[in-house]
Amino acid sequence: MPQPSFQTLTQACSAEWRAYCQHSFVQQLADGSLPKESFQHYLKQDYLFLIHFSRAWALAIYKSRSLAEMRAALDSLKTIMDVELGLHVGYCQAWGIAEDALETLPEARATTAYTRYVLDTGLRGDLLDLHVALAPCIIGYGVIAKWVEAQPGFDASSNPYASWAAMYAGEDYQKAMNAELTWLDGRLAHISDQRLAELARIFAEASRLEADFWQMGLDLAA
Ligand SMILES: Cc1ncc(CN)c(N)n1
């Protein structure tokens, strides 16, 4: 039997992974038909989401057992704080929403559910539990953005969400995603079947919460 890897997790949770990666929010993003209000609602909640995910990566630093692991988690934290949050602030400024107004937005239930699930999983589990809970986020968006850009209906010159896709398909984000894939593949290679089953449950739940996050954007849900 081949060694377990990140791909083993996506295969074990194929329904949840597909429902997340091929959600209608993503499909509408790719063909440019996503209503602007849905994207705005999503992106404002994502600003709040990223603040909590920064906390989760800070927890990964705390739970690390070596300097190499600490540096890897710090790199992911910096990708969120320096690359992703910058894109969100830029979009919101163009819509006339200042950064301090974003921080005081009320959190939608989907934002609270997902972020607190990941933080709780990391607090009660070990570093691998935490990384698996974070994987649909960091790896999923890199995969989704490449898929969006490869769609025949995607036209970067007219699609209103092209800069969103470009950031996640771009070099900095893809580098962070690949570093996470390498780390996960290395750690998953030697685990037992029982541990794999535990981690697959975490991965499935985090993927389901990602799909709920897209749905929150579509429904403009509070
Ligand atoms: C909900 C969500 N999931 C993932 C990502 C990509 N880090 C994000 N910005 N937002």
Automatic annotation (TrEMBL):
Keywords of the record: Hydrolase, Thiamine biosynthesis
E.C. number: 3.5.99.2
Catalytic activity: thiamine + H2O = 5-(2-hydroxyethyl)-4-methylthiazole + 4-amino-5-hydroxymethyl-2-methylpyrimidine + H(+); 4-amino-5-aminomethyl-2-methylpyrimidine + H2O = 4-amino-5-hydroxymethyl-2-methylpyrimidine + NH4(+)
Keyword Hydrolase: yes
GO CC terms, sorted: cytosol
Pathway(s) annotated for this protein in UniProt: Cofactor biosynthesis; thiamine diphosphate biosynthesis
Matches recorded under CDD domains: TenA_C_ScTHI20-like
Enzyme class: hydrolase
InterPro entries: Haem_Oase-like_multi-hlx, Thiaminase-2/PQQC, Thiaminase_II, Thiamine_Salvage_TenA
Stretches assigned to the Thiaminase-2/PQQC domain: 16-219
GO BP terms, alphabetized: thiamine biosynthetic process; thiamine diphosphate biosynthetic process
Pfam families xrefs: TENA_THI-4
Organism superkingdom: Bacteria
Molecular function, one GO term: thiaminase activity
Keyword Transferase annotated: no
Record-linked NCBIfam families: salvage_TenA
The family this protein is said to belong to: Belongs to the TenA family.
Role played: Catalyzes an amino-pyrimidine hydrolysis reaction at the C5' of the pyrimidine moiety of thiamine compounds, a reaction that is part of a thiamine salvage pathway.
Protein name: Aminopyrimidine aminohydrolase
Organism: Limoniibacter endophyticus
